[in-house]
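Backbone-to-sequence.
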């Protein structure tokens, strides 16, 4: 462990090993070598003077990267791609002369960036689907448990705990739809040359357009893609990065909303995130159980949402066929956006998997507010006994204000039912009024909506992705 230099919290504390590998040096430079092999194979298959022996030599050293040679060479030439071309050539003397033939630096750099983003999106997708699966279990378990709903964080009509969970799920579902669209639209850059004109290949193939047209599709197929972007400058359009990071920001926003709700519910002592046996909530206040996982979700989510500015500004400020002011920024904004979202989804998975529901607290709070919400039903019952609807409405308004004053100004329990029972114009006993206090009468179609949402929206996604389910999240700290 390096203790004498900066290390990123994203790799030290938050992101998984799987996501860290995707953005590792090994993944990057092994992909460069795969791309050089794909280029050489394509050129050989299209008739250039490249031997199978040369390709076999390249394949023999595709994974054992001589980093020391590349590093020393880069100190001399100040060019990362040419340093790795040189290092690969040192290992492959027979193929040395045909490595990177006709290509420019972005052939390996940009195609690798697309490949890495695609792999990272697949891992994000897997975790997102598992979060939906865990939320689906939670929603189904608590689909009928009445709880006080809030608008403006003020008591409103009741809902159910499961229905509230479907609101979180729907936002994550929107993110999955966006992710699938962007992932499905990713294409490779291909091999377009210095300004995107494929001039080098026109020279290599003596101007044979029919052969040159085959280069990009063949490379794409070898690298597991359906196609390449039809036109480009030297780079693929940096708008692609914007689209990708926008997906990450959408997930971050959904997770942030979810984590905010959990934090508020934990304050209300209705629902808590998991709290481990030896976990310390506060260095000063030993009794505390802080929602630190949900707070961390919100913290990382803000970072990702702000990160969307980086690729957007980079895309907007590219000059003509390319500039290099994108490079240093991309090395930070793309990996760190993915690493942060990876950590966010692991935290979401961990939190949902261990949510603790205090149903008695939930019911107690709901019952303290339910008399106000039951007033319409009470008024209808009083009208049936001969009361005047308009007069009763005014009386309920006045009595509600009086009961509210007792609660807020005097710290008493809600005594609205007792006040109504004492008013003879209603003609209702306290027992008759209390019969209206079944919370299930006031949750509308919440339980039904949960069942329909799980059946029609979430279950098809989970059924189609059975092979991805069953993940558990390991939280480092």
């Amino acid at each position: 462990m390096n203790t004498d230099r900066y290390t990123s919290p994203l790799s030290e504390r938050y992101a998984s090993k799987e996501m860290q590998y995707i953005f590792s040096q090994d993944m990057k430079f092994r992909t460069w070598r795969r791309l050089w092999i794909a280029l050489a194979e394509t050129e050989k298959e299209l008739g250039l003077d490249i031997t199978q022996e040369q390709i076999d030599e390249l394949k023999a050293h595709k994974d054992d990267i001589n980093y020391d040679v590349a590093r020393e060479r880069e100190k001399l030439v100040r060019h990362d791609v040419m340093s790795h071309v040189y290092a690969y050539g040192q290992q492959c003397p027979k193929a040395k002369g045909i490595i990177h033939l006709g290509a420019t630096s972005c052939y390996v750099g940009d195609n690798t960036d697309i490949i890495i983003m695609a792999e990272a999106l697949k891992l994000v997708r897997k975790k997102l689907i598992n979060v939906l699966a865990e939320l689906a279990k939670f929603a189904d378990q608590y689909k009928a448990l009445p709880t006080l709903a809030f608008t403006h964080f003020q008591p409103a009509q009741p809902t159910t705990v499961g229905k509230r969970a479907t609101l979180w799920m729907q936002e994550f579902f929107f993110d999955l739809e966006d992710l699938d669209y962007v992932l499905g639209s990713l294409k490779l850059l291909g091999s377009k040359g210095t300004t995107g004109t494929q001039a080098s290949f026109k020279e290599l193939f003596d101007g044979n357009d029919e052969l040159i047209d085959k280069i990009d599709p063949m490379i794409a197929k070898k690298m597991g893609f359906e196609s390449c972007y039809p036109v480009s400058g030297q780079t693929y359009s940096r708008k692609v990065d914007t689209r990708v990071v926008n997906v990450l920001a959408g997930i971050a926003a959904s997770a942030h909303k979810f984590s905010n709700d959990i934090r508020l519910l934990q304050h209300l002592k209705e629902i808590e995130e998991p709290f481990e046996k030896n976990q310390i909530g506060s260095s000063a206040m030993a009794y505390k159980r802080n929602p630190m996982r949900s707070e961390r979700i919100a913290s990382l989510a803000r970072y990702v949402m702000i990160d969307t500015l980086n690729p957007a500004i980079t895309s907007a400020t590219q000059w003509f066929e390319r500039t290099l002011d994108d490079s240093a920024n991309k090395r930070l904004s793309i990996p760190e956006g993915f690493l942060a979202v990876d950590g966010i989804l692991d935290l979401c998975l961990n939190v949902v998997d261990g949510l603790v529901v205090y149903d008695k607290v939930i019911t107690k709070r709901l019952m303290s507010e339910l008399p106000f919400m039951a007033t319409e039903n009470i008024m209808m019952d009083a009208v049936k006994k001969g009361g005047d609807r308009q007069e009763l409405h005014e009386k309920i308004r006045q009595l509600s204000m009086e009961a509210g004053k007792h609660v807020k100004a005097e710290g008493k329990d809600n005594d609205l039912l007792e006040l109504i029972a004492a008013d003879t114009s209603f003609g209702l006993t306290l027992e008759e009024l209390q019969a209206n206090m079944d919370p299930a009468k006031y949750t509308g179609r919440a339980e039904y909506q949960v069942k329909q949402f799980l059946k029609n929206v979430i279950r098809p996604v989970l059924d189609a992705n059975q092979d991805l389910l069953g993940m558990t999240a390991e939280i480092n700290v």
